[in-house]
Amino acid sequence: MQHVRRLLTLVLLITCLTLVPEVVQAQDSGGQITHTVQAGENLYRISLRYGTTVTALSQANGITNPNMVYVGQVLIIPTTAVPPVATPMPTTLPGTPAVTPAPTATTPASTAEIVHVVQVGENLHRIALKYNTTSAAIASHNAIANPNLIYVGQSLRIPAAGAPAVTLPAEGGQPAQPGATPAPADVPATPPPSAAANVGFAYGVQVHLPNQDMVMIANSAKNLGIVWVKQQIEWALYEPVQGAINWTPIDEMVDALAAQNFSIMLNVTSAPGWARDSDQEKGPPTDYQTYADFVGALAERYQDRVAAYEIWNEQNLRREWNTPRGISAASYVEMLRLAYTAVKTVDPTIIVVTGGLAPTGFNDGVNAIDDRVYLRQMYASGVAEWADAIGAHPNGWGNPPDSTCCRNNRPAVPAYDDHPSFFFKDTLQDYREIMVQNGDSGTYIWPTQFGWGSNDALNVAPGVDFSADFAFVSYTSLDEQAQYIVRGYQLGRELGYVGPMFLWNLNFCMVVGVTGEQCMWSLLDPAGNPRPAYMAVETLAK
User: Fold this and answer.
1) Residues with pLDDT less than 70, the chain
2) DSSP characters over 193-221
């Protein structure tokens, strides 16, 4: 009960703070700089803003646990830190897309040189697009050895050949273009990215609406206190003939979710046969632009109702990315680039999330590429330039949320305790490390699928055996499932770099029945009755 009270107090505090039109982040009083902690911040992000370190901040404020700071807390910034240029913070509630602030640029009186102050979520490529130059030119002009390593608050001199930055109008609309300097032919002219980095932690769940009572399912999600809802859109089902999209069922799904005021994310996957090289398993289209066209059409039709798009699903698996060319992170990033461009052309505030990777536990390069290896390959292929958030599938298998590889003392979890992919916390922390190593510390991880399965009390029919591939569902009781899910949400919130978390799943048990593996994760049983995990999430989220 005390935890619930603390959680409610925190939610109210966040609400009060985020409703203030303008929040002063830093004050200089008598030579001392202070910073008021905002929603979604942690000491690491604050240290980057002021050019200091987590250790220095902790020492200056007597903080014994650097992971525990709270919204509204006033921090003393060490005197050696550099005061940041004032940066507007989001005024929207967590889970609500925010408008990107205009890039900060000043022109010194003595020269015609432009100075750009790095904002949250920016990288050199995105800055280069704003000034009609290249990331290599900016890096050379500022003596940056590693173009992937820039920090929030850093002042960058823009080469004289660069055009003035594009300024976004205060109330949306098209940016005003100063002059008639065209973008270089080899740089895609994409609109500015959204402020996805400002969308911090929020409760989410994946639903399945096709051929279900959509109102009932939407109400069940609403009663949980969930903010975000994910629905998968299998492209093959809705455009079986090129150019002939069946909008009616998608309209019905979006309408049902929008009626409950959810923040909606659509996960678009599964290319139709006419667009593919192979009809075996699932896979991307031969021409990635056809996928981008479909996603762009979705973005245009649901611009005012769908807040985010997840581009594909578990693309590090052959069964999801089956092509004659094999699994390829570079190919995926190319498709992502085209989809990102299509979405942002419609509305720069729509959030684009990479497809969540499957934690495989093995890496044969044919059937699967280890998710950590694949994520590094995505960064090597430029994923930071074409994504607002990094999708992840940190499933816990049979391991508790706080356990880490390979020290699980639970003997009942054989074969799922010998690799970091099988551990919820390890997956999130490993992804974060890879992102920081690639200069992408300002981007959030979105767990677009997570959870724990249990086959307790499901009355599995005789002859149905999950021991081969899904034995772990028998390792977790219903009570443990509820406890693990609650702790998973809590841990994601505590980490400070996790955005909306989508629990897998709400109602798949009603779709596939007890013989389907997806049923083991469901919060509702085959009859639509809540399992213990449903009630646990309801208590937590509300």
Assistant:
1) 1-31, 39-40, 44-45, 47-48, 65-67, 80-112, 120-121, 123-126, 128-129, 132, 135, 146-148, 161-198, 407-415, 458-470
2) PP-GGG---EEEEEE--TTS-HHHHHHHH
Cα 474 to Cα 428, 450, 513, 519, distances in angstroms: 24, 17, 17, 13
* Residue partners of 388: CB distance under 8 A and separation at least 6: 121, 193, 194, 196, 197, 351, 352, 353, 443
Give the torsion through C-alpha atoms of 191, 197, 200, 201, to 10 deg: 90
DSSP per residue, 423-478: -HHHHHHHHHHHHHHTT-TTSEEEESSB-----TTS-PPTT---TTT-GGGGSS-H
**Is 300 inside a domain boundary?**
yes
Q: Are residues 132 and 248 in the same domain?
A: no
Give yes or no: residues 62 and 111 share one domain.
Answer: no
Domain count, the chain: 3
Secondary structure element (H or E) that encloses residue 494, with its range = helix 478-495
Please indicate, yes or no, if residue 94 is contained in any of the structural domains.
Answer: no
Q: How many CB atoms are located within 10 Å of the residue 318 CB?
A: 19
The CATH number assigned to the domain holding 48 equals 3.10.350.10
Tell me the C-alpha to C-alpha distance, in Å, between residue 362 and each of 332, 416, 419, 470.
Answer: 20, 12, 9, 16
Cα 268 to Cα 22: distance, rounded to the nearest angstrom: 36
Cα 17 to its chain centre, rounded Å, is 23
pTM of the model: 0.66
> pLDDT for 255-294, tens place per residue?
999 999 999 999 999 999 999 987 778 899 999 999 999 9
| Cα 257 off chain centre by | 20
- 195 is written with which tokens? 């402020």
Q: Give me the CATH number covering residue 455.
A: 3.20.20.80
DSSP at 422:
G
Query: Left (φ > 0), alpha (ψ -120 to 50) or beta: where does 326 sit?
Result: left
- Segments forming the whole domain that contains residue 265: 196-541
Task: Give the C-alpha distances (Å, rounded to integers) separating 93 from 37, 41, 198.
Answer: 15, 14, 10
Which pLDDT tens digit goes with each residue over 349-366?
Answer: 999 999 999 998 889 999
Any alpha helices (H) in 259-328, and if so which ranges? 288-301
